[in-house]
Model the fold of this input.
Amino acid sequence: MSKYRITVEGKTYEMDVELIGANGAAVAPVAKAATPVAAAPKAAPAPVASKPAEVGSGSVVAPMPGTILKVLKATGDAVKAGEVVLILEAMKMENEITAPVDGTIASLSLTEGSTVAGGDLLFDVK
Done:
């Protein structure tokens, strides 16, 4: 059994963790030398990605799961790189999803209120 100390939102918890093999039996721990660990400085929260991941030059996928709050463009509309196409609400935050390149919206079948998973195709710009 291994003992771990975890800090979540400023509260520290200690827990014992036991490794279990495929057959459900406890696996004997491997002996390791103890190494002192200095307290790590508090890290700043990771910034939320403002630009979605791109599949192709003009394909835009959801950077995280969420709900489509607003659709500002429609199929056939001309867009410029960086122009907001839709607003994705995730974790109570509104994320502007922008066009990666200049062009025309080739496909956009989402409606306001649609739910998307991370990695789902949102729209294509050709």
Summary: The beta strands are 2-8, 11-17, 59-61, 66-71, 78-79, 84-90, 93-98, 103-107, 115-116, 121-125. The chain is about 0% helix and 40% strand. Confidence is low (pLDDT under 50) at residues 48-55. The first strand starts at residue 2 and ends at 8.
